[in-house]
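Convert to structure. Protein one:
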Amino acid sequence: LSLRTRARVSREIRQAQEAVAALGQRPLCFRPPVGIVNPRFWPALLRQGLFAVGFSRRAMDWGNRKVAGLAGRLLRGVRGGDILLLHDCPGGEQFDLEAWIGEVEAVLDGLEAKGLQVTPLSRLLGRPVMEPVNAEGEGANAAALFYDGLAGTYDAEQEAPGAAAVRGAERRIVK
């Protein structure tokens, strides 16, 4: 995704949205593959009414092609509020579903042992991440919902050290 043209990024995101909408749900957020974004990415998300969500811990499982030790890699240094990245797809011909389930159970047990609990992403963010598709195939504007939720803290964040560089990048992207 990070090396594709603006048109292709927009097309791929639109096609993904259409595929999920056909199942009756509309994603309101998007996790960039590998967490990598570029300037072509943001306009495509905004046109689709999406906001981006990253992650703070990943198992380096290469799309479930490296399942052994997944729990240990995720649990090392995990803290409350972390967003854990897990893949829900088979990792190729050698994928061992039972081993993967065992690693996921070990993650859940490890979180509990650390006094942490799994929280739905929508609760962590304080806003929905999916919505049902209405009869016309449209949903609410996710980007507006997300940014409206940030309005209360926006001014203080814009005055924080280092924010000027981010504001400059935002201006260039949104043009």
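Protein two, convert as well:
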Amino acid sequence: MNEQAPTTRTWARVGADVYLRLPLRSHEFLKGVPLHDVWQVRLPGGGPGRTLADAREALTGDRLSAANPAVRALFAFRRWLGRLFGWDREPPRSGRGSFVDRLTAEDRERTLVKPGTADGPFTAMYAFPDEAVSEARNATVHAFLVYALESADDDYLLTWAIHVAAVSWLTPVYMALIGPFRRFIVYPSILNQIRRRWIETYGERPG
């Protein structure tokens, strides 16, 4: 991945080291699952003491899929293909099971969202005040979204990492086909949506 400085614009695709330097539970929880992408978006202001829950409304599956008309069309097209080819069925039995079994007793005590709760097309694994992981399993991928929020001067930085494990020969083909759409349309639109919702709620700077 090519590293870009997130301060040069409001969002950017960044290097794996930006994500890996963060002291997150996900590094151990998702051990062995390839890291596919890392993005960051700067969330201005917000005041002290904000947590990931404060941005969660903009992170829900419904909000993400409604980011803009192009993204809605792509999500609808993907659902149509899923029905046509059976992509949204459970992955082959030879694949990994849900990572919910990796949760420790401490994870279950700390999480603010019950493991297994639906999160749009994903399933919540855990949601801590500064970190959350959701999982999706189907016939194309075994994917995970990781969100992490940290304070940065008077603002906040939201780091968004995507881990993807192969479930069959279809996974690399599928990821290669959707790659340009994800990186040039879907992800930028979603990050802009998250930032816009944050500003609507909290304003540019603490008041």
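The longest strand covers residues 142-152. Confidence is low (pLDDT under 50) at residues 1-8.
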